[in-house]
């Protein structure tokens, strides 16, 4: 019977009930008080008398975003040199759901650009609080927030701020520049000078530039300190006179007005006499000045905003003292509050509206808006929206778009106050009807992405409703000559070497947009080249879809190969001059693989019409029948070309793709194989849409009768077909893309002849060039967005986006991005992720463009974290993002490359001692034991408390030199240790990692072997073993292994460290290849947590520039390994490996990294190897903070040591000191079972995520009842039994003669007793010993001993 809820209540039930009720009431009161206290602590009342340093600023902004989620959203636009976030608070109605919808002009304030000019930093925090606190209560604030998209960046230079000193008015204490000593306001592109500053020195400027160009702000303020004045463009002049040279912008009158708006509302600024101690005689008329007239500044941010960003910006100097005492902050806020609000309101003056296509009403982004007499134009946004700030007056305004007839509105009257709405509709030359303009009488802002375009009867142009303007009334219509793009000129067949040079040439000639790389090698060792074309090659940009073209999969189908080379030339040569090409390259990351089967191509012959020579690869395998199939296995072994392309596809968030073939003329879409069932995919309508986009631009293809001479009966309606309805293809690439990735792929047959003569290639280009471009455009259809954690705004990887109307899901990238192609329609979208509550929204996909829909998911069981834990959680997530580790690596100071060299034992020991002497507070050197030749096995601990036991911190082990002939790992670990120590206290990210991690580095565990090994010996085994000729990686055996040989002293030393347990992760570095292996080395050992082990290995490989490609390129091994990851037994199967011992006996996952093909490469290769591996090594420091960690305790709060944590009913870890446990797990949901002797079992389900903290409370009950109650009841029962037994004995004793009865009983049983003794004495020694030493485990030693007896 259960002890809960069944059977009659125990005695004293009412009393127990009253007691339980009282306890529950007490607990609820305590919880309520605790919650109130926590809320009160979080909601600190603003006192205006203290500065917020980075940690406090971050916590404060996070608090505001959580408190006001309906109007506030916090995000980071990038990181500083030292890894601090550049926080931006977005304030507007529905900042998540309403992301990027038109109708609200974007405004921004940026503060603390110079780190020691600090008033702006605090004033902008106060402004954010002011707007959020008064939203819904103050009419002015409410109107601003509802009608404006406001962005506030309190600190653009957080590193400089941390080095500044309070009270430093003149800026002599430092902190003005960033951590690389760069003045951020001298580092932007300049109209008169070339600003030669390496981007790696100014990540803050790079991030803000990207932000400005992406957001298309309308108005901005840059807040500084050092005097009191509003300065406006231009900041410098062509002659660069130091001062006194007025540098007039085209909008000079408008800038003066805007600067006066700020100055007039500031009681000190408007006097024009700041009376600053540094220059008490300095004055500014009306409190404003032209920037260059004051003093010349090249590379300033306000000029960049105006010239490049569509945005008007002025610079406000807020106080004479750059870093005044905190007691002055309230008065500074009072002086600037009204100015800040009044200036923001000016974003709503002038003219605003939309530019659209007259025929179908679609938006025209990047259309040009010009005002006669003002030589400064701006462009429309993605929805065709524009905002043109103008002073009251009469203007002639023109809208132009490439390929459309421009329209000019004469005599447009701009009045004081709110902006006039002026919409344009443009026509292409030759279309019926003329262009139109509308000026609605209502100035209400549009509330959706399809604003009204109906004409108003009160239009200022004098047009009647619906009347088209003519040449004599209304706008002037003038046609402009169309731009003619440059076409390829050199048409020929490119063999492999020719193609290789072609790609090298264009990537060299156009490095700003072109990068060529290889994804692997063919059977005959030819590179599988890809050309990437993007405005930021080599980088995935948030929100930008990735697209690919693949050709020449069948080696004798060559037209696609040549067309893609033509396309590369076309895109490169027309970028920057042709609007369509420029937009495609700026908005899309395009990957082009001209040849997937270069071996087959070299066998094929020109003139082949419908043959097979060269179709297959060098192993005679058809690559388009070699991919995993959804209906059955593929018999042929997976080919290196197939493996390489699969790895490539999985490593990029491709959205759309085409595979170019030959032999017919049609676009073929999934499914290619139907398995005898329906061949229609769930996205049939999408596939038809993108297929028709290609075929309709190719008139010959669109007719549907492609090869009448070869195949007279073949017909494809509109030039497209379902693959399986044409003919079934098992193992095809397009189906694999759709079923296994987020990428939609079609197959395009480009012509009836497979290998046509070179003279016909110009015709193929002319027929297909428009189609190739139109198909790329299709990647910008449907919906896209982010799936984010509602608490910290970080992206959620591997979240699922499902469409109610379409039975096919896509998943988010590692940064939480998604793209979902859809046909125009209204859809029900749901975003879900393990551990989060799903969110469902409705989205309408328009005929043109992509709809942006972001999701913010809330955790089902949100972890309770203090602010520091929450900040560290966000920090780890940030490092795990797309460029997080890249930014970390760029920000660290490293030793000179010349310091990388091979060190023998003596120098290695001195180096380690040097680290402990120079960095005593974070290092401790341990001796684990000695080698055969009495060399010490060193272990270096790096932590902020290296000699203290800190069970709550994850513990990571790095091991090198297990094979003395592979010393690269040793040198990499020494460099790693030096980098960590040198950056501690200087680099915030490194400092955080060291403070929160216990790092143990064993640089060389086989020092004897290392002494024997020789440099530049790539395959020599000299030094592989220790001095006793033992391979140490075959010497790790536990007690249960039946291995009775005494371990080597080196092995014993390391085993002792492993058996201390407490390690979360171990990384061993070896040599001889370029890959990562995971347990087990044992040939037949099942791997219970293979997903996790493989995941950890993949993290290392994916952060290595070569390893993840899967082909090491080693002379002794040409095999491809998918992702560069392999189970150890498949690489080198043996017993006694260190990684197997670590998993089985240390309960710690270990991976082995093979760092280079050569075991002992030349020393001059070490800098390159360090550059290749350092990001991966840091990724392990990040990864060790993920998984699931927690504490096991009983209900009284006492920690339980030695409790067993069983993960997914297989993997076991044990709680250590303080009851802490930590287990690394692959992303996903996992079952957790906790067992401890004397406690009730606990079973739960948890989601593996970065730095999740969970508490598993062990129930201190027996039989479902409190232990104390059970023990007391048992004691009372035993007492009652003893008393009863005594009473019975006394009664029986009184009725009998004990003496007589005793002799009688003895005689009665004497014979039996003697027989029992005799039988027992006959037992053999063997049986006695066997019983005495019986054990469940079998022992050869025990059996031998028993047999001797």
Automatic annotation (TrEMBL):
<keyword id="KW-0732">Signal</keyword>
<dbReference type="InterPro" id="IPR050753">
    <property type="entry name" value="Peptidase_M14_domain"/>
</dbReference>
<keyword id="KW-1133">Transmembrane helix</keyword>
<feature type="active site" description="Proton donor/acceptor">
    <location>
        <position position="749"/>
    </location>
</feature>
<feature type="compositionally biased region" description="Basic and acidic residues">
    <location>
        <begin position="174"/>
        <end position="184"/>
    </location>
</feature>
<feature type="signal peptide">
    <location>
        <begin position="1"/>
        <end position="32"/>
    </location>
</feature>
<keyword id="KW-0325">Glycoprotein</keyword>
<keyword id="KW-0472">Membrane</keyword>
<feature type="active site" description="Proton donor/acceptor">
    <location>
        <position position="317"/>
    </location>
</feature>
<keyword id="KW-0121">Carboxypeptidase</keyword>
<feature type="compositionally biased region" description="Polar residues">
    <location>
        <begin position="462"/>
        <end position="475"/>
    </location>
</feature>
<keyword id="KW-0482">Metalloprotease</keyword>
<protein>
    <submittedName>
        <fullName>Carboxypeptidase D</fullName>
    </submittedName>
</protein>
<keyword id="KW-0862">Zinc</keyword>
<keyword id="KW-0645">Protease</keyword>
<keyword id="KW-0378">Hydrolase</keyword>
<dbReference type="InterPro" id="IPR057246">
    <property type="entry name" value="CARBOXYPEPT_ZN_1"/>
</dbReference>
<feature type="region of interest" description="Disordered">
    <location>
        <begin position="162"/>
        <end position="184"/>
    </location>
</feature>
<dbReference type="GO" id="GO:0006518">
    <property type="term" value="P:peptide metabolic process"/>
</dbReference>
<comment type="similarity">
    <text>Belongs to the peptidase M14 family.</text>
</comment>
<dbReference type="InterPro" id="IPR008969">
    <property type="entry name" value="CarboxyPept-like_regulatory"/>
</dbReference>
<dbReference type="InterPro" id="IPR000834">
    <property type="entry name" value="Peptidase_M14"/>
</dbReference>
<dbReference type="InterPro" id="IPR057247">
    <property type="entry name" value="CARBOXYPEPT_ZN_2"/>
</dbReference>
<keyword id="KW-0812">Transmembrane</keyword>
<dbReference type="GO" id="GO:0005615">
    <property type="term" value="C:extracellular space"/>
</dbReference>
<feature type="region of interest" description="Disordered">
    <location>
        <begin position="431"/>
        <end position="481"/>
    </location>
</feature>
<dbReference type="GO" id="GO:0008270">
    <property type="term" value="F:zinc ion binding"/>
</dbReference>
<feature type="domain" description="Peptidase M14">
    <location>
        <begin position="901"/>
        <end position="1184"/>
    </location>
</feature>
<feature type="region of interest" description="Disordered">
    <location>
        <begin position="1330"/>
        <end position="1349"/>
    </location>
</feature>
<keyword id="KW-0479">Metal-binding</keyword>
<feature type="domain" description="Peptidase M14">
    <location>
        <begin position="492"/>
        <end position="779"/>
    </location>
</feature>
<feature type="compositionally biased region" description="Low complexity">
    <location>
        <begin position="435"/>
        <end position="461"/>
    </location>
</feature>
<dbReference type="Pfam" id="PF00246">
    <property type="entry name" value="Peptidase_M14"/>
</dbReference>
<dbReference type="GO" id="GO:0016485">
    <property type="term" value="P:protein processing"/>
</dbReference>
<feature type="domain" description="Peptidase M14">
    <location>
        <begin position="50"/>
        <end position="347"/>
    </location>
</feature>
<dbReference type="InterPro" id="IPR033848">
    <property type="entry name" value="M14_CPD_III"/>
</dbReference>
<dbReference type="GO" id="GO:0004181">
    <property type="term" value="F:metallocarboxypeptidase activity"/>
</dbReference>
<feature type="transmembrane region" description="Helical">
    <location>
        <begin position="1269"/>
        <end position="1294"/>
    </location>
</feature>
<dbReference type="Pfam" id="PF13620">
    <property type="entry name" value="CarboxypepD_reg"/>
</dbReference>
């Amino acid at each position: 019977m259960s002890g809960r809820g069944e059977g009659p209540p125990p005695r004293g039930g009412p009393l127990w009930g009253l007691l339980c009720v009282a306890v529950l009431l007490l607990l609820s009161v305590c919880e309520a008080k605790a919650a109130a206290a926590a809320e009160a602590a979080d909601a600190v009342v603003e006192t205006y008398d203290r500065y917020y340093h980075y940690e406090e600023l971050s916590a404060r902004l996070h608090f505001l975003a959580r408190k006001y989620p309906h109007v506030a959203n916090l995000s980071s636009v990038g990181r500083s040199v030292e890894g601090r976030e550049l926080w931006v608070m977005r304030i507007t109605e529905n900042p998540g759901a309403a992301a990027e919808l038109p109708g609200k002009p974007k405004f921004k304030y940026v503060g603390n650009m110079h780190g020691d000019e600090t008033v702006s930093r605090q004033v902008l925090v106060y402004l954010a609080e002011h707007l959020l606190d008064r939203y819904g209560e103050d009419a002015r604030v409410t109107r601003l927030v509802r009608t404006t998209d406001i962005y506030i960046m309190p600190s653009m230079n957080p590193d400089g701020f941390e080095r500044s000193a309070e009270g430093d008015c003149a800026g002599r204490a430092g902190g003005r520049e960033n951590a690389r000593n760069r003045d951020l306001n001298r580092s932007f592109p300049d109209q008169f000078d070339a600003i030669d500053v390496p981007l790696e020195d100014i990540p803050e400027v790079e991030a803000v530039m990207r932000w400005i160009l992406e957001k298309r702000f309308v108005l901005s303020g840059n807040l500084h300190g050092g005097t009191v004045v509003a300065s406006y463009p231009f900041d410098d002049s062509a002659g660069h006179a130091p001062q006194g040279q007025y540098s007039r912008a085209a909008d000079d009158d408008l800038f003066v007005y805007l600067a006066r708006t700020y100055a007039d509302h500031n009681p000190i600024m408007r006097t024009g006499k700041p009376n600053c101690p540094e220059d008490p005689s300095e004055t500014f008329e009306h409190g404003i000045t032209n920037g260059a007239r004051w003093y010349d500044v090249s590379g300033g941010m306000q000029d960049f905003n105006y010239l490049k960003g569509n945005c008007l910006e002025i610079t406000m100097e807020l106080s004479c003292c750059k870093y005044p005492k905190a007691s002055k902050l309230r008065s500074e806020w009072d002086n600037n509050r009204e100015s800040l609000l009044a200036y923001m309101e000016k974003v709503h003056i002038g003219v605003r509206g939309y530019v659209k296509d007259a025929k179908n009403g679609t938006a025209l982004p990047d259309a040009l808006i010009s005002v006669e007499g003002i030589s400064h134009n701006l462009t429309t946004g993605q929805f065709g929206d524009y905002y043109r700030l103008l002073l009251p007056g009469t203007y002639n305004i023109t809208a132009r778009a490439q390929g459309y007839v421009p329209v000019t509105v004469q005599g447009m009257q701009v009045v004081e106050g709110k902006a006039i709405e002026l919409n344009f509709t443009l026509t292409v030359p030759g279309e019926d009807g003329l262009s139109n303009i509308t000026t609605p009488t209502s100035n209400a802002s549009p509330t959706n992405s399809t604003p009204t375009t109906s004409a108003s009867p009160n239009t200022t142009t004098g047009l009647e409703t619906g009347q088209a303007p003519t040449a004599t009334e209304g706008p002037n219509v003038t046609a402009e000559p169309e731009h003619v793009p440059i076409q390829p000129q050199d048409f020929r067949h490119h063999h492999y070497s020719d193609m290789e040079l072609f790609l090298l040439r264009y990537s060299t000639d156009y490095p700003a947009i072109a990068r060529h790389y290889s994804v692997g090698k063919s059977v005959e060792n030819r590179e599988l080249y890809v050309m990437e074309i993007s405005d930021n090659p080599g980088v995935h940009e948030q929100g930008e879809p990735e697209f690919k073209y693949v050709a020449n999969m069948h080696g004798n189908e060559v037209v696609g190969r040549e067309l893609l080379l033509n396309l590369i030339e076309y895109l490169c040569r027309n970028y920057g001059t042709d609007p369509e090409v420029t937009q495609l390259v700026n908005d899309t990351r395009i990957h082009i693989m001209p040849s997937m089967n270069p071996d087959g191509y070299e066998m094929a012959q020109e003139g082949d019409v419908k043959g097979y020579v060269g179709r297959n690869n060098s192993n005679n395998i058809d690559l388009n029948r070699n991919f995993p199939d959804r209906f059955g296995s593929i018999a042929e072994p997976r080919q290196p070309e197939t493996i390489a392309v699969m790895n490539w596809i999985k490593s990029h968030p491709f959205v759309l793709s085409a595979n170019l073939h030959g032999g017919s003329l049609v676009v073929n879409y999934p499914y290619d194989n139907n398995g005898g069932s329906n061949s229609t995919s769930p996205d049939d309508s999408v596939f038809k849409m993108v297929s028709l986009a290609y075929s309709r631009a190719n008139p010959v293809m669109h007719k549907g009768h492609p090869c009448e001479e070869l195949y007279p009966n073949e017909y494809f309606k509109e030039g497209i077909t379902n693959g399986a309805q044409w003919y079934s293809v098992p193992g095809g690439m397009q189906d694999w893309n759709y079923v296994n990735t987020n990428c939609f792929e079609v197959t395009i047959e480009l012509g009836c002849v497979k290998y046509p003569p070179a003279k016909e290639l110009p015709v193929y280009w002319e027929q297909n060039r428009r189609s190739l471009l139109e198909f790329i455009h299709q990647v910008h259809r449907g919906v896209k967005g982010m799936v984010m954690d509602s608490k910290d705004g970080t992206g959620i990887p591997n979240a699922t986006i499902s469409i109610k109307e379409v039975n096919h899901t896509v998943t988010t990238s590692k940064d939480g991005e998604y793209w979902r192609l859809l046909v125009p329609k209204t859809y029900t979208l749901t975003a879900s992720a393990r551990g989060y509550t799903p969110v469902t929204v409705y989205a309408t996909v328009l005929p043109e463009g992509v709809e942006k829909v972001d999701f913010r998911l809330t955790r089902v069981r949100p972890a309770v974290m203090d602010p520091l834990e929450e900040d560290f959680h966000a920090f780890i997530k940030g490092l795990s993002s797309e460029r997080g580790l890249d930014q970390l690596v760029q920000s660290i100071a490293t030793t000179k490359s010349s310091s990388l060299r091979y060190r023998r034992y003596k120098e290695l020991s001195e180096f380690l001692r040097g680290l402990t002497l120079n960095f005593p507070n974070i290092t401790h050197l341990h001796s684990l034991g000695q080698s055969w030749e009495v060399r010490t096995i060193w272990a270096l601990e790096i932590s902020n408390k290296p000699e203290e036991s800190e069970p709550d911190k994850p513990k990571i082990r790095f091991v090198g030199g297990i094979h003395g002939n592979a010393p690269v790992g040793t040198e990499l670990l020494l460099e790693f240790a030096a980098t960590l120590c040198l950056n501690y206290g200087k680099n915030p990210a490194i400092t955080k990692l060291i403070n929160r991690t216990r790092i143990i580095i064993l640089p060389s565990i086989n020092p004897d072997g290392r002494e024997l090994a020789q440099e530049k010996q790539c395959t020599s085994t000299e030094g592989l073993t220790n001095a006793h000729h033992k391979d140490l990686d075959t010497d790790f055996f536990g007690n249960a292994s039946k291995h009775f040989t005494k371990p080597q002293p080196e092995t014993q030393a390391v085993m002792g460290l492993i058996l201390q347990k407490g390690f979360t992760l171990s990384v061993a570095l070896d040599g001889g290849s370029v890959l990562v292996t995971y347990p087990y080395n044992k040939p037949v050992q099942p791997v219970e947590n293979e997903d996790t082990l493989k995941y950890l290995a993949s993290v290392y490989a994916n952060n290595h520039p070569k390893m993840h490609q899967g082909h090491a390129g080693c002379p002794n091994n040409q095999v491809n390994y998918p992702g560069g990851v392999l189970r150890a037994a498949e690489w080198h199967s043996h017993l006694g490996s260190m990684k197997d011992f670590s998993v089985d006996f240390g309960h710690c996952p270990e991976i082995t990294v093979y760092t280079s093909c050569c075991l002992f490469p030349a020393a001059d290769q070490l800098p390159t190897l360090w550059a290749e591996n350092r990001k991966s090594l840091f990724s392990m420091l990040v990864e060790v903070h993920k998984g699931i960690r927690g504490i096991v305790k009983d209900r009284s709060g006492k920690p339980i040591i030695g409790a067993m944590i069983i993960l997914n009913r297989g993997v076991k870890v044990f709680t250590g000191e303080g009851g802490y446990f930590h287990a690394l797990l692959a992303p996903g949901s996992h079952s957790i079972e906790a067992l401890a002797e004397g406690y009730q079992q606990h079973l739960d389900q948890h989601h593996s995520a970065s730095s999740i903290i969970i508490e598993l409370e062990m129930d201190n009950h027996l039989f479902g009842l409190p232990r104390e109650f059970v023990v007391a009841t048992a004691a009372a029962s035993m007492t009652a039994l003893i008393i009863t037994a005594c009473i019975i004995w006394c009664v029986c004793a009184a009725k009998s003669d004990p003496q007589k009865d005793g002799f009688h009983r003895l005689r009665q049983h004497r014979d039996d007793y003697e027989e029992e003794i005799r039988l027992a004495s006959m037992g053999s020694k063997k049986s006695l010993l066997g019983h005495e030493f019986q054990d469940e485990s079998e022992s050869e030693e025990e059996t031998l001993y028993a047999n001797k007896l």
